[in-house]
Protein backbone atom coordinates (compact mmCIF):
# COMPACT_ATOMS: atom_id res chain seq x y z
CA UNK A 1 0.00 0.00 0.00
CA UNK A 2 1.42 3.38 -0.96
CA UNK A 3 1.00 6.56 1.08
CA UNK A 4 -1.85 7.81 -1.11
CA UNK A 5 -3.94 4.78 -0.14
CA UNK A 6 -3.63 5.69 3.55
CA UNK A 7 -5.27 9.08 3.20
CA UNK A 8 -8.73 10.17 2.11
CA UNK A 9 -9.48 13.12 -0.13
CA UNK A 10 -10.75 14.86 3.00
CA UNK A 11 -7.24 14.50 4.46
CA UNK A 12 -5.78 16.19 1.39
CA UNK A 13 -8.26 19.06 1.68
CA UNK A 14 -7.57 19.40 5.40
CA UNK A 15 -3.80 19.58 4.81
CA UNK A 16 -4.11 22.22 2.08
CA UNK A 17 -6.57 24.25 4.17
CA UNK A 18 -4.34 24.06 7.26
CA UNK A 19 -6.89 22.11 9.28
CA UNK A 20 -4.63 19.27 10.44
CA UNK A 21 -3.12 19.17 13.90
CA UNK A 22 0.66 19.53 14.19
CA UNK A 23 1.01 15.78 14.66
CA UNK A 24 -1.24 15.02 11.69
CA UNK A 25 0.55 17.59 9.53
CA UNK A 26 3.97 16.14 10.34
CA UNK A 27 2.78 12.62 9.53
CA UNK A 28 1.22 13.79 6.28
CA UNK A 29 4.33 15.68 5.16
CA UNK A 30 6.50 12.68 6.02
CA UNK A 31 4.27 10.55 3.81
CA UNK A 32 4.56 13.07 0.98
CA UNK A 33 8.35 12.95 1.15
CA UNK A 34 8.15 9.19 0.70
CA UNK A 35 5.49 9.08 -2.01
CA UNK A 36 5.68 11.15 -5.19
CA UNK A 37 2.12 10.19 -6.17
CA UNK A 38 0.71 11.64 -2.95
CA UNK A 39 2.79 14.78 -3.45
CA UNK A 40 1.47 15.12 -7.00
CA UNK A 41 -2.14 14.75 -5.84
CA UNK A 42 -1.66 17.47 -3.23
CA UNK A 43 -0.06 19.80 -5.78
CA UNK A 44 -2.87 19.17 -8.26
CA UNK A 45 -5.62 19.77 -5.71
CA UNK A 46 -3.91 22.94 -4.47
CA UNK A 47 -3.65 24.15 -8.07
CA UNK A 48 -7.35 23.51 -8.69
CA UNK A 49 -8.33 25.38 -5.54
CA UNK A 50 -6.11 28.30 -6.46
CA UNK A 51 -7.49 28.44 -9.99
CA UNK A 52 -11.04 28.53 -8.71
CA UNK A 53 -10.32 31.24 -6.16
CA UNK A 54 -8.48 33.36 -8.72
CA UNK A 55 -11.41 33.09 -11.12
CA UNK A 56 -13.86 34.27 -8.47
CA UNK A 57 -11.88 37.04 -6.79
CA UNK A 58 -12.97 39.70 -9.25
CA UNK A 59 -16.40 38.60 -10.43
CA UNK A 60 -19.93 38.52 -9.13
CA UNK A 61 -21.86 35.30 -9.60
CA UNK A 62 -25.33 35.79 -11.10
CA UNK A 63 -28.19 34.44 -8.95
CA UNK A 64 -29.29 30.94 -9.92
CA UNK A 65 -32.53 29.13 -9.05
CA UNK A 66 -32.24 26.27 -6.58
CA UNK A 67 -32.76 22.80 -7.99
CA UNK A 68 -33.97 19.62 -6.34
CA UNK A 69 -30.64 18.00 -7.12
CA UNK A 70 -27.25 18.20 -5.52
CA UNK A 71 -25.60 20.98 -7.45
CA UNK A 72 -23.42 23.91 -6.50
CA UNK A 73 -25.43 26.21 -4.21
CA UNK A 74 -24.93 29.53 -2.48
CA UNK A 75 -24.55 31.37 -5.78
CA UNK A 76 -24.72 34.76 -4.11
CA UNK A 77 -21.21 34.31 -2.72
CA UNK A 78 -18.28 33.78 -5.04
CA UNK A 79 -16.42 32.04 -2.22
CA UNK A 80 -19.29 29.62 -1.67
CA UNK A 81 -19.27 28.77 -5.37
CA UNK A 82 -15.52 28.28 -5.32
CA UNK A 83 -15.77 25.99 -2.32
CA UNK A 84 -18.63 24.02 -3.86
CA UNK A 85 -16.80 23.51 -7.13
CA UNK A 86 -13.63 22.49 -5.33
CA UNK A 87 -15.63 19.88 -3.46
CA UNK A 88 -17.13 18.74 -6.75
CA UNK A 89 -13.68 17.92 -8.06
CA UNK A 90 -12.18 16.73 -4.80
CA UNK A 91 -14.98 14.85 -3.09
CA UNK A 92 -17.61 14.44 -5.77
CA UNK A 93 -21.36 14.47 -5.40
CA UNK A 94 -24.18 12.77 -7.24
CA UNK A 95 -27.37 13.69 -8.96
CA UNK A 96 -29.70 12.88 -6.07
CA UNK A 97 -28.87 14.22 -2.62
CA UNK A 98 -31.80 12.47 -0.98
CA UNK A 99 -30.72 8.86 -1.47
CA UNK A 100 -27.16 9.14 -2.71
CA UNK A 101 -28.24 7.25 -5.83
CA UNK A 102 -28.23 8.51 -9.38
CA UNK A 103 -31.76 9.27 -10.48
CA UNK A 104 -31.61 10.80 -13.93
CA UNK A 105 -35.37 11.20 -14.13
CA UNK A 106 -35.40 13.47 -11.08
CA UNK A 107 -32.60 15.59 -12.50
CA UNK A 108 -34.30 15.95 -15.88
CA UNK A 109 -37.66 16.75 -14.30
CA UNK A 110 -36.06 19.56 -12.33
CA UNK A 111 -34.26 20.91 -15.37
CA UNK A 112 -37.34 21.08 -17.56
CA UNK A 113 -39.84 22.06 -14.87
CA UNK A 114 -42.24 24.85 -15.77
CA UNK A 115 -40.73 27.15 -13.16
CA UNK A 116 -37.16 26.53 -14.28
CA UNK A 117 -36.21 26.76 -17.93
CA UNK A 118 -32.40 26.76 -18.06
CA UNK A 119 -30.76 28.27 -21.11
CA UNK A 120 -27.29 26.94 -20.38
CA UNK A 121 -26.59 23.60 -18.70
CA UNK A 122 -23.26 21.94 -17.97
CA UNK A 123 -23.18 18.24 -17.05
CA UNK A 124 -19.94 17.01 -15.49
CA UNK A 125 -18.72 13.42 -15.12
CA UNK A 126 -15.41 12.12 -13.76
CA UNK A 127 -16.30 8.43 -13.47
CA UNK A 128 -16.54 5.47 -15.84
CA UNK A 129 -19.00 3.61 -13.61
CA UNK A 130 -21.90 2.39 -15.77
CA UNK A 131 -24.60 3.76 -13.44
CA UNK A 132 -23.15 7.26 -13.56
CA UNK A 133 -22.59 7.17 -17.31
CA UNK A 134 -26.12 5.92 -17.89
CA UNK A 135 -27.60 8.61 -15.65
CA UNK A 136 -25.62 11.31 -17.44
CA UNK A 137 -26.61 10.19 -20.93
CA UNK A 138 -30.23 9.67 -19.95
CA UNK A 139 -30.38 13.15 -18.44
CA UNK A 140 -28.73 14.75 -21.46
CA UNK A 141 -30.95 12.91 -23.94
CA UNK A 142 -34.16 13.67 -22.08
CA UNK A 143 -33.27 17.32 -21.60
CA UNK A 144 -32.34 17.78 -25.26
CA UNK A 145 -35.37 15.86 -26.49
CA UNK A 146 -37.92 17.60 -24.26
CA UNK A 147 -36.65 21.04 -25.23
CA UNK A 148 -35.97 20.36 -28.92
CA UNK A 149 -39.28 21.87 -30.00
CA UNK A 150 -39.10 24.95 -27.81
CA UNK A 151 -38.60 28.45 -29.13
CA UNK A 152 -35.16 28.78 -27.58
CA UNK A 153 -33.30 25.52 -27.14
CA UNK A 154 -30.89 25.42 -24.19
CA UNK A 155 -27.16 25.06 -24.66
CA UNK A 156 -26.04 21.76 -23.17
CA UNK A 157 -22.43 20.79 -22.56
CA UNK A 158 -21.01 17.55 -21.20
CA UNK A 159 -17.57 17.89 -19.62
CA UNK A 160 -15.56 14.79 -18.74
CA UNK A 161 -12.36 14.47 -16.74
CA UNK A 162 -10.48 11.74 -14.88
CA UNK A 163 -12.06 8.34 -15.70
CA UNK A 164 -15.01 10.11 -17.28
CA UNK A 165 -13.02 10.73 -20.48
CA UNK A 166 -13.48 7.04 -21.35
CA UNK A 167 -17.02 7.98 -22.38
CA UNK A 168 -15.60 9.85 -25.37
CA UNK A 169 -13.12 7.16 -26.43
CA UNK A 170 -13.55 5.60 -29.88
CA UNK A 171 -13.74 2.21 -28.15
CA UNK A 172 -16.49 3.29 -25.73
CA UNK A 173 -19.57 1.08 -25.75
CA UNK A 174 -21.55 4.33 -25.83
CA UNK A 175 -19.82 5.51 -29.01
CA UNK A 176 -22.85 5.05 -31.27
CA UNK A 177 -25.11 6.93 -28.87
CA UNK A 178 -22.62 9.79 -28.54
CA UNK A 179 -22.29 10.12 -32.32
CA UNK A 180 -26.07 10.05 -32.75
CA UNK A 181 -26.53 12.76 -30.12
CA UNK A 182 -24.02 15.02 -31.84
CA UNK A 183 -25.76 14.53 -35.18
CA UNK A 184 -29.23 15.10 -33.76
CA UNK A 185 -28.61 18.11 -31.53
CA UNK A 186 -26.71 21.16 -32.72
CA UNK A 187 -26.99 22.68 -29.24
CA UNK A 188 -24.84 19.96 -27.64
CA UNK A 189 -21.12 20.33 -26.95
CA UNK A 190 -18.75 17.67 -25.61
CA UNK A 191 -15.43 18.40 -23.92
CA UNK A 192 -12.75 15.99 -22.70
CA UNK A 193 -10.38 17.51 -20.15
CA UNK A 194 -7.05 18.41 -21.73
CA UNK A 195 -5.12 17.55 -18.56
CA UNK A 196 -6.84 14.19 -18.15
CA UNK A 197 -6.02 13.28 -21.75
CA UNK A 198 -2.38 14.22 -21.23
CA UNK A 199 -2.18 12.09 -18.10
CA UNK A 200 -3.71 9.14 -19.89
CA UNK A 201 -1.21 9.50 -22.73
CA UNK A 202 1.68 9.75 -20.26
CA UNK A 203 0.53 6.51 -18.66
CA UNK A 204 0.86 4.73 -22.00
CA UNK A 205 -2.88 4.40 -22.59
CA UNK A 206 -3.87 7.34 -24.82
CA UNK A 207 -7.49 8.10 -25.61
CA UNK A 208 -8.59 8.42 -29.23
CA UNK A 209 -11.54 10.77 -29.10
CA UNK A 210 -14.78 10.44 -31.01
CA UNK A 211 -15.01 13.04 -33.76
CA UNK A 212 -16.25 16.49 -32.71
CA UNK A 213 -15.36 16.01 -29.05
CA UNK A 214 -13.36 19.08 -28.05
CA UNK A 215 -10.23 18.85 -25.91
CA UNK A 216 -8.61 22.27 -25.86
CA UNK A 217 -9.28 23.15 -22.19
CA UNK A 218 -9.06 21.61 -18.75
CA UNK A 219 -12.31 20.63 -17.09
CA UNK A 220 -11.89 23.05 -14.20
CA UNK A 221 -11.19 26.00 -16.51
CA UNK A 222 -14.22 25.19 -18.65
CA UNK A 223 -16.59 24.71 -15.72
CA UNK A 224 -15.46 27.82 -13.86
CA UNK A 225 -15.78 29.88 -17.03
CA UNK A 226 -19.26 28.57 -17.74
CA UNK A 227 -20.45 29.05 -14.15
CA UNK A 228 -19.31 32.65 -14.08
CA UNK A 229 -21.41 33.20 -17.20
CA UNK A 230 -24.55 31.84 -15.58
CA UNK A 231 -24.52 28.17 -16.59
CA UNK A 232 -26.35 25.67 -14.40
CA UNK A 233 -23.90 23.01 -13.12
CA UNK A 234 -24.72 19.36 -12.37
CA UNK A 235 -22.24 16.65 -11.36
CA UNK A 236 -22.61 12.91 -11.93
Looking at this structure, what is the CATH superfamily of the largest domain? DsrEFH-like
Strand order of the largest sheet: 3-2-1-4
Q: What's the architecture of the largest domain, going by CATH?
A: 3-Layer(aba) Sandwich
Main beta sheet, described?
A: 4 strands, parallel
In the CATH hierarchy, the third-tier topology of the largest domain is known as: Hypothetical Protein Ychn, Chain: A
> In percent, how helical is the residue content?
40-55%
Brief summary:
With 236 residues, this protein is α/β, with parallel strands linked by helices. The protein contains 10 helices and 4 strands; from the N terminus they run H-H-H-H-H-H-E-H-E-H-E-H-H-E.
Please, could you describe this protein's structure?
- Strand 2, helix 8 and strand 3 form a beta-alpha-beta unit.
- 48% of the residues lie in helices and 9% in strands.
- The chain starts with a helix and ends with a strand.
- It has 236 residues and is an alpha/beta fold.
- The protein folds into 2 domains: 55 residues; 116 residues, Hypothetical Protein Ychn, Chain: A.
- Strands 3-2-1-4 form a 4-stranded parallel β-sheet, with helices on both faces.
- Helix 3 packs across helix 4, helix 4 runs parallel beside helix 10 and helix 6 runs parallel beside helix 7.
- It is elongated, with a radius of gyration of 18 Å.
